[in-house]
Amino acid sequence: MRYKYGFIGTGNMGSALARAVVKKCPQNEIALTNRSPVKAKTLSDEIGGIVLDSVSLCESSQFILLCVKPQMLENLMPTLKTALHKNFDDTGIKPVLVTPAAGVTMDTVLSLTGINEWPVIRIMPNTPVSIGDGVILATKNTFVADDDFSTFVSDFSAAGIVEILPEELIDAASVVSGCGPAYIYIYIDALAKAGQQLGLSREMAENLAKATARGSAALSMASDESLEVLRERVCSPGGSTIEGVKSFLNSDLDKVVEKALAAAYNRTKELAEGK
Questions:
Q1: Is the Cα torsion angle 194, 195, 196, 199 positive or negative in sign?
Q2: What's residue 73's pLDDT?
Q3: What is the reported pTM?
């Protein structure tokens, strides 16, 4: 039996990606494996797909998604080398390795596996892919056929936006889209807490903050106007909104965000160096 997508690791990210791609790909073309077979079985019960061991999955999948933590790849990859070559020997086509691990380059994946001239796609998804409204950053090496990459991008568009970019920009982009949801949640939580201070219940303040963030993001995506213009459209001279905006600007919010992204970016680089 051949599978289109094989997922090694069914934790939060592996599960989110599998839930997305099954919207475009038949269940019987999905294979799953995990250190804890119970986790893989639970996901299989939810979305379909077959549970295999990692070697069998590598021997029989066209795209192999390495959904494990960066520090686990070093031990995992050498164990898959023989299975990858068997897959190639059986089909005449090299299976595509897909890595979503933070800070792990395509060359690093090949180096850990001990193979050369092998197709690798590097992606960086964010958590909203689990509801089909996320971002996946994607790039490929020269050994990935254009048709295979197009197929991959099309199938994973079920997760949201697939942004194709050169590998040297992946780390910078990932601290915006990959880490970004955490920063948005911090702001939504702060907005809700401030609403509580003004007398709203926690439930009401949180619901209002979430709905406002969702609607504002949707409007900005639908509009051709700049974020600055959209902001100004909410403000009236001498009104309430502009006073709050002045407070944000006076607190040097841009610098706070810049510092947070720099810290995340530096940590990504450290992970790439194995620190």
A1: positive
A2: 84
A3: 0.90
